[in-house]
Amino acid sequence: MEQHEIETLRAKVPCAAVLEREGWKVDVKESTARAVKYRRGKGEIIIVIHAGRGWFDPLSDAKGDVFTLAGHLAGIGFPAAVEQVRGLVGYVPVPPSWNRPKRASTPLSSTERWRRRRPPASGSRAWRYLADERAIPISILHAAIAQDLLREGPSGSIWTAHVDRAGQLSGWEERGPRWRGFSTGGAKELFRLGNEAALRFCVTEAAIDAMSLAALEGMRTDTLYVSTGGGWSPASDAAIRAIAAGPDILIAAATDNDRQGEIYAGRLQGIVSEIGCRYERLRPFTEDWNSDLKRTGEGKPENGRGKENGIAAACPAVASREAAPG
Fold it and tell me: Is 0.85 topped by the overall pTM?
């Protein structure tokens, strides 16, 4: 087949067509207009990017265009993948039904939208959501607000900022009693709470888990608590690699205690092995750190020992620690 024919097919068939025909469904809560998350079964995930022309698997290194996607799903070579894609010319996938209010005016930039929202205040709906429903201690809320990481979202939700190392906003996680997602038009990088000059980095899957682990550990001064926002974007990967490249760095994989959490921890360990920094696996006793925190009664240990002793003091059986072999 001539190259111009390949390009024509690539332009005519979006990645969504391949996924939809194979039974994949859009995860609306975890999708944005720029990054649409598809799921199949309990453990398979594909993120479609570049206006439907590109994709990547957050649980592996697989990525590419519509032809590599067809080959990846079916386990076939390029010629057979081309024929599969050719058979989808004219197929129009169902567009995602975004569960968000429509804006009558021109959308504001992410920076302006963030600027117009207020940080959570004591007694506000977002404050009560974090302090009461999520059991985040007031000291942690104050620390996050001081770093300009929190905003009041609509309907009692909370926005938690993703920033680069220079502190530039890239987007934010959105969590609330009835909503979970990521900012429209935003890009996942890292939520960063704590000491930017730290040598220890605890990598979690959600900002609320990062705050929960900080509470359980007593907000260690030698630690930066980060979140990838429930995914593994190229920007998040690059940011973690930049962190791991520093001298004497310890990367603690503090991902969830489930299959996806173990996959993410494995990717972190792979980065550590490649770059050469130190590695530790922190595994919550329950499914995630926020569940662990709520089990302790808003982070207060029943035995009366102070938080300064970290996880072991707050909840002795909460986490297991595993250092990298060798």
Answer: no
